[in-house]
From TrEMBL:
Keywords: Signal. This is Uncharacterized protein. Residues 1-27 form the signal peptide.
Length: 265
């Protein structure tokens, strides 16, 4: 799932998740298609260009091999509890014309998203040159994400923040519940000048400047930061990402920026 919360008094921060474990490791159809995987998204530098958030890349990829290559391929994903209702989560299907291909599945948005602990059916469909389906293979995948808190918010002096944040004060990203031990966390606090917003974002280069961008491995992310006085009037975005090998990443984002208010000297 990839959803976000508004700033202020909204109860929960968003948990954006992607990646899962496969059971069984491979699935083959009588027609000769074998599905393998999945692999899990890792944060990359390019993911954050022109974005104020940590990498929001999520979902998973499976590869497939067809012993008798077809002219075209497509893929669908559905919950095992509703196999006849495809979910609009397949990002892309790629193949090389020699029977090798891959499927990219997104973790979802809003009302359509992958749910931790649920089993999903990924089906690769093969088609003739006339567009007629000539076979398919389905693989079961159990979604498993990094253990994460059930709620998150931004606080000043222990009080949940509204839609503004002060300068020269300790600000905390607070959580209800624990993170999974041994995860790698990235915390990003990014600022955009108010001039950029006032000019309807008419800029020629990435306008976001990081106040904090820290990656640590352990039991919790870096969660405290402060804002210098010169940022008064600007806007701040806050986000956290957790990754762990073999598990789906979790991303906490606050959709709307906080306005920075200059504290009295």
């Amino acid at each position: 799932m990839r959803t976000t919360t508004t700033t202020g008094v909204v109860a929960a921060a968003a948990l954006a998740i992607g990646g899962l474990t496969l059971a069984p490791a491979q699935a083959a159809a009588p027609g000769g298609i074998t599905i393998s995987g999945p692999t899990y998204p890792k944060p990359e530098a390019g993911d954050t260009e022109w974005s104020p958030y940590v990498s929001e890349t999520c979902g998973f990829e499976v590869s497939f091999r067809d012993a008798t290559p077809a002219a075209d391929y497509d893929a669908t994903i559905a919950s095992a509890t509703a196999p006849g209702t495809p979910l609009d989560l397949v990002n892309w299907v790629d193949y090389d014309g020699r029977g090798n291909g891959a499927v990219g599945v997104d973790c979802g948005y809003d009302d359509v998203f992958l749910v931790d602990g649920e089993t999903y059916l990924v089906t690769v469909h093969e088609y003739s040159a006339r567009g007629i389906e000539v076979g398919s293979t389905t693989s079961e995948i159990v979604y498993d994400e990094v253990g994460a808190p059930v709620d998150a918010w931004v606080a000043v002096d222990g009080v949940r923040a509204g839609d503004t944040l002060p300068t020269a004060r300790a600000i905390d990203i607070a959580f209800e519940g624990a993170w999974e031990e041994g995860s790698t966390f990235t915390t990003r606090v990014s600022v955009v000048p108010h001039e950029v917003v006032d000019s309807d974002w008419e800029v020629d280069e990435d306008p976001f400047v990081d106040v904090l961008n820290r990656t640590v491995t352990g039991s919790a992310p870096v969660s405290r930061f402060s804002l210098p006085h010169h940022l008064g009037g600007d806007y701040v975005f806050v986000s956290v990402r957790a990754d762990k090998p073999g598990k789906a990443p979790v991303v906490v984002t606050f959709e709307e920026p906080f306005e920075v208010v200059t504290s009295p000297p």
